[in-house]
Design brief:
The protein has helices at 3-12, 28-39, 82-92, 109-117, 128-131, 137-149, 158-161, 168-171, 212-222, 237-246, 263-270, 292-299, 312-315, 330-342, 344-361, 364-371; strands at 15-18, 45-49, 63-66, 97-100, 120-125, 152-155, 174-176, 199-203, 227-231, 253-257, 275-277, 304-307, 323-325. By secondary structure, the chain is α/β, with parallel strands linked by helices. The longest helix has 18 residues, at 344-361.
Length: 374
C-alpha cells in the first residue's frame, strides 16, 4: 500500500461525532454516547461536544473538542459559528463521516457539507429529538431535507424509527441501534430477606409521560397490601403525592426522590422489588422511546410490566419475558400485577426469560455493529 492509499484508508475511518449530550452531563443520551465512544475503535473518532467547566476527558480514548455548539446567545441561529467551524474540523482531522448523536437544528449544515466537501453523514435519533422539529412547519421542512440526504438514519428503537415517516426511500436508510447493557457493571445482590410484602418498583424521572399516576390508580384498584417504591424526581412529584393521598394509598407509596446515577445505588432498590413497572404513555406525540431501566431490571431477573406503543415493545416479549399493557389503562395494569402476585412461579419464569433475552439481544457489541456499519 502506497502513501496515498494509507492516507485515504485513514480518512475512510475518521468519524466526527457531534452531540450536546455527553459526560459529565447526566442522562440517558449521555450514558449512551459514553458507552459507545469508549468502545469505538481507536484513532477513528473525533468528538465535538459542549464545553463544561467540570469536564475531565483524560480517560476518553479519543480527541474531544469542547466548544459550545449553540455559541451565540445574542443571535439567531445561535449555532451559526458551526457554519465555518465544521468544514475547518473536517479538513483538519480528515473526516470521512459525520455522525449526529441526535437531531438538532445545526444538522441542516450536513447536506451542505455533503454537496461541497463530499462528506457522508448519518443521524441518530432517540425519540423527542425527532418529534419536536415536526411541530413547526419551517423546522419540519429542514428536518425532512436533512433526512433525505443522510446515508443512514439510526433509531434507538422501532418506536423512534416511526418518526422518520413512511417514505420508502427513508425506510431503506433506517437501522435500529438499541442501547445495550453490560451485566458485569452491576453488582450481585444477596438473597432478598425483606418481609415488607409484595413490592412494585419504578425508577424514572417524574414527568407526565412516565405514567406514574396510572400506576397509582392501578394500586388503588388492587385493594391489596402492595408496596410501591418510586425512585426518581421531577416536576410531577408534588401532584403525584397529592394523588396518592386523594386515592387513600399514600402509606403504600414510598417516594424516594433522586438517587446517585450509579449501579450500586440502583441495585439497592432493585433488590427490594418483586416486579418492575414502567407505565409510560404517549404525551403530545412523544412516547417512551426505549427504556434502559427495563434492561437493568433484567440484570436482577425481575419480571417487568411495560406498555405498548413504546420502545418497550422491542425489549419485552409479551407473556414470555414480561407483560405489556395498554398505556393509560390502570384496570389492565392492576390485572397484570394481580396475575404476577397470584402466580409467583410464573413471575419468576418471566424474570428468568427476561434476563436471558436481554443478556443475548441487548449487548453493546450489537449496538457497535450497527453504528460502525458502512
Amino acid at each position: 500500500m502506497g502513501l496515498f492509499d494509507e492516507e485515504m484508508a485513514q480518512r475512510q475511518n475518521k468519524t466526527l461525532l457531534i452531540t450536546a449530550f455527553f459526560p459529565p452531563k447526566l442522562g440517558g443520551l449521555e450514558h449512551f454516547w459514553s458507552e459507545v465512544t469508549r468502545r469505538w475503535p481507536e484513532d477513528s473518532l473525533i468528538i465535538w461536544t459542549d464545553k463544561e467547566v467540570d469536564a475531565n476527558d483524560d480517560n476518553i480514548p479519543h480527541r474531544v473538542i469542547r466548544q459550545k455548539l449553540f455559541a451565540w446567545s445574542w443571535c439567531k441561529p445561535s449555532w451559526l459559528p458551526m457554519l465555518w467551524r465544521l468544514p475547518r474540523y473536517i479538513r483538519r482531522f480528515e473526516i470521512h463521516r459525520i455522525l449526529f448523536g441526535h437531531y438538532a437544528q445545526y444538522a441542516i449544515l450536513a447536506p451542505l457539507m455533503r454537496l461541497c466537501l463530499g462528506i457522508r453523514y448519518d443521524i441518530m435519533s432517540h425519540g423527542i429529538d425527532a418529534v419536536l422539529p415536526q411541530q413547526n412547519p419551517v423546522h419540519a421542512f429542514f428536518y425532512r431535507l436533512t433526512l433525505r440526504f443522510a446515508d443512514t438514519l439510526y433509531a434507538n428503537s422501532n418506536q423512534t424509527a416511526k418518526h422518520f415517516g413512511t417514505d420508502p426511500k427513508l425506510q431503506k436508510k433506517i437501522r435500529i441501534a438499541h442501547p445495550g447493557i453490560d451485566f458485569a457493571d452491576f453488582p450481585e445482590l444477596p438473597q432478598r430477606t425483606s418481609t415488607e410484602g409484595f413490592t412494585v418498583l419504578t425508577i424514572s424521572r417524574l414527568v407526565a409521560m412516565k405514567g406514574i399516576d396510572v400506576m397509582l390508580h392501578a394500586l388503588a384498584l388492587l385493594k391489596a397490601p402492595v408496596r410501591y417504591i418510586v425512585v426518581g424526581d421531577g416536576p410531577e412529584m408534588g401532584a403525584l403525592k397529592q394523588l396518592a393521598n386523594t386515592l387513600g394509598i399514600l402509606e403504600q407509596v414510598h417516594f424516594i426522590g433522586a438517587i446517585p446515577d450509579n449501579a450500586e445505588e440502583k441495585a439497592k432498590w432493585y433488590a427490594q422489588a418483586d416486579v418492575f413497572v414502567l407505565p409510560s404513555r404517549p404525551v403530545r406525540g412523544h412516547a417512551e422511546s426505549f427504556g434502559i431501566v427495563l434492561l437493568e431490571a433484567a440484570r436482577y431477573r425481575l419480571p417487568v410490566i411495560a406498555t405498548r406503543q413504546s420502545g418497550a415493545e422491542d425489549i419485552v416479549l409479551p407473556a414470555q419475558s414480561g407483560l405489556l399493557v395498554d398505556p393509560g389503562n390502570p384496570e389492565e395494569l392492576a390485572r397484570a400485577i394481580k396475575e404476577l402476585m397470584g402466580d409467583q412461579t410464573w413471575a419468576q419464569q418471566l424474570g428468568e426469560k427476561h434476563y436471558t433475552r436481554v443478556q443475548t439481544e441487548f449487548t453493546w457489541k450489537r449496538t457497535m455493529e450497527e453504528l460502525l456499519h458502512e
